[in-house]
């Protein structure tokens, strides 16, 4: 541990020096305290790449910045400016292709295989050994062959490699460009030409000022310089400030509002950042600002919840036997994470093992009600939900005989219902009913419009031609009443004209009940919407996105369960937290509760929209995708060969008429264009038995290794602390503070 900590501090000291000498400036440049004019960046420091191969660049400052030009020496070229324009020579990035023949954990083994390839193919192809930066796992060496100028040429050489016994081949595309350099800078309407080796520093004029690039504000300072891939913009800032943007960018504080989940994300992100310092040294920074490494969006993404999580875990990282771990994390694991070696090229790591995404201490709650509510059918429609709504609001009497609702509606009872409904909506206009006339679609429409103040909508929001179109086949209605009737149909309060057919048809009580509920819903939201979080002191804890509420459930409340568009009334519900619910509250009691189960399961990532998914690809679509990587010709079939502990596909055989190939690990997701590798395949066949399409029923989103972000949120909702969350998804680790 002491050795590790010494190495860590030495590395950050080197980074601090790099701030001052980046771009070739002398060491004494870093000793000039006045350079920052009081603007200091605390250690540890991270360098984040905000853009590569840039052309036109605009940098602004909220309250002024200083710009330094650094060559063999340095000088101030602008003082206290708010905006600067730069133009770089942006080269068109060309593309070349190389083939990864194999990978090895040991460099010596990789060199041996590389020499074997050189002996086999002579000087015709370049053979290189490189460290894999894309996999996210340290210590993997790739053996690559060639520089091919086209994908077609690359695919032809793969055939040669396959014939030579190398089956685990993979095409890698690389961007190539000539040196792209800054050309000129415009400050205060004065243009200055820049040399090719110029490095520019943008320093806020005071600690409260922030810099902006591409519409986003950033803490720290900017450095603009040349790189092997063109002009790059680098943001230097305190690592903890960097995390204040990464954590909410990776785990939305708006959707996942649990502090312990954000603390777990903060510690994982901090560990990843420190572990991968210098990953993009050849470009002059540590990490990209994209999800390729960690998603970083500057100050604009920061949120108080995430900031608190970063501050309360300051300096904390995840260690395994005293060393920083590869803190991989995935959005949605689909119920179980996977062993790292089954997804990425690299060794089996003891802390990245398959883990079921459930919480052993998962609490459960049971809700009961004394109310049994059976279906009530009126004209073929079940109006039980409408009856429950109005009963919950005390507009209808409880325990009414269902036969009551199939009887003819009467104005006296309608008057009473409408009075109570208007009172609920705080409408003070008197209710007027046309006594002496039958209750029909037409007469009731006039009453609804008057009671709920919808006359303005009818008069001004329904055009004459529109009412004619809506009321086709119902011509014998005067203009004013036509608009009223058309409005109720248009706003889905009444059924379509083809269903009504005759506007003078008498209404049943059940129909009136439905129309009153729909009228109220067109004016105000009847139901509160949120999530069930648990129970405290016999009260339901509900999160309605703005606040957390605690409300008791009435003993005679209506309980509903909704799933896949179907609704049913129940007398007992089993909840584990996180369920989406809607409810009607009256006099401090929940009078009606609708529980919506997105997926009836106990896995922690059940609330994710990517917990389950389905994708359909035609055979032609798959042929196009697969042949971009492997020369298989016309597709014959896709067959899983091996699955991991999470049931993710580890090896996938793609059979073609020209050749076959085995795709492994995360490459399966890339080749097929799917969200994850946890899926089963169903085939659509033509009359000759040929596969014409493939249906992928899958679970999860991401690579499925390490921390499951939605699962972490689920654990946090169930009361788990961030250290427990991290120790669940990273086996045998220790959380320690290293600065």
3D structure, described in words:
With about 750 residues, this protein is an alpha+beta fold. Among the domains are: about 220 residues, no CATH class; about 80 residues, Sporulation related repeat (Alpha-Beta Plaits), CATH 3.30.70; about 90 residues, no CATH class. Helix content is about 25%, strand content about 30%. The protein is built from 18 helices and 37 strands. Helix 5 packs across helix 18. It is globular, with a radius of gyration of 33 Å.
Describe the structure concisely.
The protein starts with a helix and ends with a strand.
Descriptors:
alpha+beta; eleven-stranded mixed beta sheet; seven-stranded mixed beta sheet; disordered N terminus
Number of strands: 37
Main pleated-sheet profile: 11 strands, mixed
Note poorly predicted spans.
Answer: 1-37
Q: Calculate Rg over CA atoms.
A: 33 Å
Tell me, briefly, the overall form: globular
- Strand % is 25-35%
Helix content range of the residues, please?
25-40%
Q: Helical stretch count?
A: 18
In terms of structural class, how would the helical and strand content be classed?
Answer: alpha+beta
The average pLDDT is 87
Please give the alpha-carbon distance between the first and last residues: 13 Å
What does the secondary structure layout of this molecule look like, with pairings?
Layout: H1 2-21, E1 45-51, E2 56-70, E3 74-88, E4 94-104, H2 107-121, E5 127-131, E6 141-148, H3 151-163, E7 170-176, E8 182-187, E9 190-193, E10 199-204, E11 211-213, E12 216-218, E13 221-227, E14 230-238, H4 239-250, H5 259-275, E15 287-288, H6 304-312, E16 316-320, E17 323-324, E18 329-330, E19 365-368, E20 377-378, E21 381-382, H7 384-392, H8 411-424, H9 441-451, H10 455-461, H11 464-470, H12 479-490, H13 497-500, H14 509-523, E22 528-536, E23 539-543, E24 548-551, E25 553-563, E26 566-570, E27 572-575, E28 580-586, E29 589-596, E30 613-618, H15 619-627, E31 635-643, E32 649-656, E33 660-664, H16 667-672, E34 678-685, E35 691-699, E36 707-708, H17 709-717, H18 722-729, E37 734-737
Parallel strand pairs: 1-15, 18-36, 25-29
Antiparallel strand pairs: 1-14, 2-3, 2-10, 2-11, 3-8, 4-6, 4-7, 5-6, 8-9, 10-13, 11-12, 13-14, 16-17, 16-37, 19-27, 20-21, 22-23, 22-28, 23-24, 25-26, 28-29, 30-35, 31-32, 32-33, 34-35
Helix pairs in contact: 4-5, 4-6, 5-6, 5-17, 5-18, 7-14, 9-12, 10-12, 11-12
């Amino acid at each position: 541990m002491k050795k590790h900590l010494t190495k860590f501090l030495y590395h950050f000291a080197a980074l601090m020096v790099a701030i001052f000498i980046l771009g070739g400036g002398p060491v004494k440049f870093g000793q000039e305290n006045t350079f920052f004019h009081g603007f200091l960046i605390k250690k540890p420091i991270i360098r984040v790449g905000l853009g590569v191969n840039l052309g036109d660049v605009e940098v602004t400052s909220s309250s002024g910045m200083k710009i330094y030009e650094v060559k063999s020496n340095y000088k101030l070229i602008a003082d206290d400016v708010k905006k600067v324009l730069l133009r770089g020579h942006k080269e068109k990035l060309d593309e070349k292709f190389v083939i990864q023949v194999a990978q090895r954990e040991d460099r010596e083994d990789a060199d041996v295989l590389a020499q074997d390839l050189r002996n086999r193919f002579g000087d015709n192809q370049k053979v290189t050994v490189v460290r894999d930066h894309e996999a996210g796992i340290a210590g993997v060496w790739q053996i690559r062959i060639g520089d091919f100028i086209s994908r077609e040429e690359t695919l032809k050489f793969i055939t040669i490699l396959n014939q030579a016994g190398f089956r685990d081949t993979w095409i890698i595309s690389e961007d190539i460009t000539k040196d792209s350099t800054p050309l000129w800078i415009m400050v205060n309407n004065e243009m200055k030409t820049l040399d090719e080796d110029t490095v520019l520093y943008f320093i806020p004029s005071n600690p409260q000022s922030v810099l902006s690039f591409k519409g986003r504000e950033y803490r720290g300072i900017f450095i603009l310089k040349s790189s092997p891939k063109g002009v790059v913009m680098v943001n230097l800032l305190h690592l903890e400030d960097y995390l204040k943007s990464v954590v909410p960018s990776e785990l939305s504080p708006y959707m996942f509002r649990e502090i312990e989940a954000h603390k777990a994300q903060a510690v994982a992100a901090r560990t990843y950042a420190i572990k991968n310092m210098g990953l993009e040294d050849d470009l002059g920074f540590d990490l990209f600002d994209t999800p390729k490494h960690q998603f970083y969006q500057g100050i604009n993404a920061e949120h108080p919840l995430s900031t608190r999580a970063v501050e309360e875990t300051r300096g904390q990282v995840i260690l395994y036997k005293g060393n920083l771990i590869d803190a991989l994390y995935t959005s949605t694991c689909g119920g179980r994470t996977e062993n790292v070696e089954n997804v990425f090229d690299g060794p089996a790591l003891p802390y990245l093992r398959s883990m079921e995404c459930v919480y052993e201490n998962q609490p459960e709650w049971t809700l009961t009600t004394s109310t049994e509510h059976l279906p009530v059918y009126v004209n073929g429609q079940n109006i039980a939900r409408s009856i429950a709504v109005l009963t919950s609001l005390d507009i209808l009497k409880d325990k009414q005989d269902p036969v009551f609702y199939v009887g003819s509606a009467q104005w006296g009872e309608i008057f009473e219902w409408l009075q109570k409904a208007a009172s609920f909506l705080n409408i003070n206009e008197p209710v007027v009913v046309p006594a002496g006339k039958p209750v029909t679609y037409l007469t009731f429409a006039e009453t609804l419009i008057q009671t709920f103040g919808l006359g303005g909508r009818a008069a001004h929001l329904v055009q004459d031609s529109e009412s004619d179109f809506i009321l086709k086949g119902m011509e014998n209605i005067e203009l004013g009443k036509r608009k009223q009737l058309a409005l109720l149909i248009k706003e889905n309060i009444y059924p379509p004209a083809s269903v009504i057919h005759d506007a003078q048809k008498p209404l049943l009580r059940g129909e009136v009940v439905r129309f009153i509920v729909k009228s109220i819903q067109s004016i105000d939201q009847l139901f509160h919407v949120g999530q069930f979080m648990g129970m405290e002191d016999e009260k339901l804890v509900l999160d309605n996105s703005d606040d957390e509420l605690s409300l008791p459930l009435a003993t005679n409340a209506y309980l509903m369960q909704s799933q896949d568009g179907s609704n049913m009334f129940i007398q007992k519900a089993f909840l584990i937290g996180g369920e989406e619910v809607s409810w009607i509250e009256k006099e401090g009691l929940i009078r009606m509760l609708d529980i919506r189960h997105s997926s009836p399961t106990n896995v922690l990532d059940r609330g994710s929209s990517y917990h389950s998914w389905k994708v359909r690809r035609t055979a032609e679509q798959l042929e196009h995708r697969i042949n971009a990587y492997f020369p298989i010709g016309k597709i014959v079939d896709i067959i899983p060969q091996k699955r991991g502990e999470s049931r993710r596909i580890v090896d996938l055989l793609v059979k073609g008429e020209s050749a076959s190939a085995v795709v492994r690990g995360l490459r399966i997701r890339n080749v097929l264009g799917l969200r994850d590798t946890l899926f089963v395949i169903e085939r659509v066949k033509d009359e000759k038995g040929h596969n014409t399409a493939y249906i992928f029923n899958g679970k999860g989103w991401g690579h499925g290794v390490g921390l499951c972000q939605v699962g972490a949120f689920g654990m946090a909702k169930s009361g788990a602390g961030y250290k427990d969350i991290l120790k669940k998804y990273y086996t045998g680790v220790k959380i320690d503070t290293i600065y």
